[in-house]
Amino acid sequence: MIIKSSISKLIKNLQFNHLYGNSLFVFIFFFCINTSNIQEPVNNVPNVTLSSYSSIIKNETTLIEKEIPNKWWNLFNDSTLSFLEDEATKSNLDILSAVTRVDESRARLGLVNSNLSPQIDGVAGYSHQALSENEPLAKLGATTSSTNSYSIGLQAKWEIDLWGHLRQQVESAQATLEATNFEKDFVKVSISADVARTYLLLRGVQSQLKINYRQNDIAEHLLHLTQSQQNNGVANKSDVALAIENVAKIKAQQLQLENQRDILINALTLLVGKYPKELDDKIKIANLVTVPNKIPVSISSELALKRPDIMQSEANLRATLSDIGVAESDFYPRINLVGSFGMKGIDFSDLGSWDSRNYSIGPSLYLPIFQGGRLERNLELSTTRHRLAALNYQKVVLNAWHEIDNALGTYVSQSKRHSQLELILEQKQSSLNTIKRGYEEGTQSLKSVLEAERTLLFSQFELIDSSTSSSLSIVSLYRSLGGNFTADLQHQILLDKSK
Q: DSSP letter at 352?
């Protein structure tokens, strides 16, 4: 009657928190807890947003509505970039750490899952003991001489999970494993984007260095011409000073570009898990990476299935929901079936006798009666963590759409800028050709030709910067879309359960 009364009071007095504007009611059917009534956050993408993206893709001829390639970096058609991406997948320490965290979560799931099964232990013991002559048993006639005691047997324990305490723990651990899997995929997406971004920046700097070396040659040639003109009375000191200043500026820029090159090479080397200088021969100076003519993109309201960080947040949300169930089940009794069987005797030979057997079997009950508010606070903590996880989920989703919006806008802007710079370069090239013809006809000086070439090289320098920025905008776009990530954990989940 006392136990029944205590359970009735717990059920009567248990209060549940308020989640997302809806009360969380826990219905108890045959003492089973159900948390399925908790309202999960829903993220509906406004039609105006999707229509805007559809319009951008339709109007931008280089964008095509098509599934993103598995290895999107191959669109740049650069074998060195593909090599670096493969190396990073195998050797990047962040990726290897993420893979190890998956193994850690899988092991934790196995530990929690083991609690659902009966626990059987073998025990054996030996003791040499004697009773005190002043003990009550000795006063009643028990011998006080020393005796041996030998024992061997089995002990078993199995918790009957009536309220879902263990089941909810398993569901939480399973969701945590899925979140860790998605975290690993998100790290891979980020690292692949970082490798592509760093490589494209490197090729841009190396191409600009080529222009810089050519600019330096022209600047020094112009300096020599100006000095010669000064000697002949055609130019003055200010003309020479201006030419010297121009050479110094170009050399200062050269030092800055060379430093940027070295830093980017080291960054690439670190991303693929190598020591400094190991990849210098592999990533030596090469031509600028060509911007792809067609960019396949797929932007839909089902972005949650395309970005691993969103699915990671969703899995964390489910884990905290299961944690609420665990906290709720702590208010109810825990019932264990406990049993033991073995042999015990004063001589070792007695262990082989059936008369030495001893056993016990029966249920044990744990009932929380007074915990000083610990259980209530634990439930409050679990529900608060769930609300935080829900807010984080909404934040990740909203941030993802803003990243896509920024990436699309940057790509379109860089594409238009690149077109304008190409037009400027064409005009500069046409002007240079005209001046060269004049030089051949004797109407233009060599200095005019060199200055026109210098102006052309400056436009080429800007165009290289624009091409690099256009390529980087493609990387940002694919990163914001989650690469070609596809949620496919069903095989992994079945594998984990089979273990």
A: G
Q: Return d(Cα 218, Cα 194) in angstroms, integer.
A: 36
pLDDT tens profile 298-348: 888 877 667 899 999 999 999 999 999 999 988 988 888 898 888 888 888
Q: How many other CB atoms are there within 10 angstroms of residue 413's CB atom?
A: 13
Q: Are strands 357-366 and 334-345 parallel, antiparallel or unpaired?
A: antiparallel
DSSP one-letter code for 5: H
Q: How far apart are CA 305 and CA 67, in angstroms?
A: 13
Give the closest residue to 323 by CA, choosing from 370, 388, 372: 388
Rounded Cα distance between 158 and 339, Å, is 9
* pLDDT of the residue at 164: 84
Q: How far apart are CA 158 and CA 150, in angstroms?
A: 27
175-195 burial, b for 16+ CB within 10 Å, e for fewer? bbbbbbbbbbbbbbbbbbbbb
Identify whether the C-beta of residue 386 lies closer than 8 Å to the C-beta of residue 317. Answer: yes
DSSP E strands in 1-47: the ranges are 18-19, 22-23
Q: What is the DSSP string of 291-302?
A: PPS-EEE---TT
Strands 147-160 and 119-129: antiparallel
Is residue 20 within 8 Å of residue 387, measured between CB atoms? yes
**Which residues, in sequence order, are CB contacts of 167 under 8 Å at separation 6+?**
116, 161
C-alpha to C-alpha distance for 312 and 392, rounded to whole angstroms? 11
pLDDT tens digits, one per residue of 83-140: 999 999 999 999 999 999 999 999 999 999 888 888 988 888 888 888 787 788 777 7
**From 170-184, 222-236, 311-325, the region with the lowest mean pLDDT:** 222-236
DSSP 72: G
Identify the helix (H) or strand (E) that includes residue 243. Answer: helix 237-271
This prediction's pTM:
0.81
Cβ 24 vs Cβ 379: under 8 Å: no
Pairing of strands 295-297, 63-65: parallel
Q: Where are the alpha helices (DSSP H) in 330-373?
A: none
- How many helices and strands, by DSSP H and E, does the chain display? 11, 8
- Alpha-carbon distance values, 39 to 163, 280, 301, 349, 398 (Å): 21, 55, 21, 65, 19
